[in-house]
Amino acid sequence: MNPKAVRFIWPDFLWGLLVLPLLVALYVWLLRRRRRNAVRYASLTLVRQAISPGQRWRRHVPPALLLVSIASGLIAAARPAANVVLPADYMTIVLAIDVSRSMLANDVEPNRIHAAQVAAREFIRELPDGIRVGIVTFAGSAQVVQGVTDRKEDLLAAIDRFQLQRATATGSGLLVALATLMPEAGIDLESLLYGQGFGRDGGRAKGAIESRAAPPPPKAAPKAPAAALAPGSYTGGAIVLLSDGRRTNGPDPVVAARKAAELGVRVYTVGFGTPNGSIPGYEGWSFYVRLDEEALKAVAKVTEAEYFYAGSAVDLRKVYQHLTSRFALERRDTEIGALFAAASALLGLFAFGLSAIWFRRSV
Description:
The protein is an alpha/beta fold. It contains 13 helices and eleven strands. The chain has helices spanning 19-36, 44-50, 53-58, 61-77, 112-126, 152-160, 170-181, 189-194, 208-213, 253-262, 293-302, 313-328, 337-358; strands at 7-8, 80-87, 91-98, 131-138, 142-149, 237-243, 267-272, 278-282, 285-288, 307-310, 329-335. The chain is elongated, with a radius of gyration of 32 Å.
C-alpha cells in the first residue's frame, strides 16, 4: 500500500488530532502537580532507591498507548481508503494474438506461431478459477475464434485452430477484443473499422451525387455520449495483445487504444520475436519481419498498462506467468478504517491491562 495514495472520505475528523498535543500537555501538568502535592519524605534518597529505573519509564507506557489509541480512533473515524492489492473476485481476459504470416519466422524455435501457441496454452491452464477468457486473432482482419468462457478445454481447442493469413491489422484486433470484453458498451465496430459510411448501399458509402439526389430521412437527435472513464479504472477485465510485426492494414492501434482508455480498459502488450527475424524461402521469397515496439509501448501507456518484450519462447512463457499472477490479484480502492479501529481498540485494552497489572495496589 502506498501511503501517498491514502485518501479520507470524512477528512474533517482529522482535525481532532490537534487535541493530542493538548492531552500530552495535560499529562505533563498532572505529573508536575502530583509531585508538588506528594508527601514529603525525610530523605529523597530513599525514594530514588525505592523506585527502580524500569518503574520510572513504564509508568508512562499506558498513557502513551492510550494516546496512540485515540489517534487511531480519530483516523478510523475519517474513513481512510487506499488503493490496495486484493484477490480478484471475477475477471474477464481477452487474448488478442497476431496470426499474420510473419509468425512463421524461425528466430524462435521451431517458429513464432508454435511458440506462441504453447505459451498461450500454459497461460490458460495456469489461470485461477473464476477468470473467464476470450480469444481474438488478427492478421489482415480480426475475428473472434473463441467467445468468452471459463471452459479451458474450449479455449485450448481454439488455440489449436489458429490459421495464418496475410497482412497485420493490429488496431482491428484490439477493437474486436474490446468489443468482446465489453459487449454492453455498444461499440460500433463497423464504423470504427471501416468508417462512418459503412453499411449503406450494401456495405459501401454513398457518393456525393447520390446523397444529393436521394437525401436520407432525418435522424433523431443523437444521444449524449457516456462520460469517459479514467484510464485503467475498469476492474472487470483486461486485454492482452501479442504481436510480432508492424501494422499494414486497418486502423491505427494507438487510436484504438484511446477508445479502450475511454472505457477504462487496460491493454497489456507483448512484443514477440527478435529484431532479425526472417521467413526463409516462403512462397519463393525470403524477407525480414521487424517488431514495432514503439506502437505496442504506446498502446500500453495510453491504457495505463504494461509492455513486455519476449525474444524467445522462454521469455514469452515468463511474460504469461507474470500476467497470470497479475490477474489473480487486482488493485482497487478499499476502505481501511476498520484496521485503524481495531488497532485503536487493541491499544486501548492493552493500555488499561498494563496499568492494572503494573500499578495495582494491595488493599
